[in-house]
Amino acid sequence: FNLSAPNPVQYRDYVCLMGELVGKPANRKMPSFMMELFMGETAPMVLHNRRMIPQRALESGYVFQFPEAKCALFNLFPTAVR
Prior knowledge:
The chain has 5 helices and no strands. By secondary structure, it is mainly α. It is flat, with a radius of gyration of 14 Å. The protein starts with 10 loop residues before the first helix and ends in a 6-residue tail after the last helix.
């Protein structure tokens, strides 16, 4: 099974959500070589915005507790500054 959420977001939107979560602006770009340095083999998934949909999980009737990134992040970090 593809273990992604059913409503994917682009990396820049994810970074903005994280900035909102911690109360800091997230308006700076990171060069791709830095992403590759820190993320290694997973960097292309972020750099090329691969849109992954958990089709088989959805077809099997799996119900996601947090299908949206914002709700999932706020659940993971409930005490973060907002």
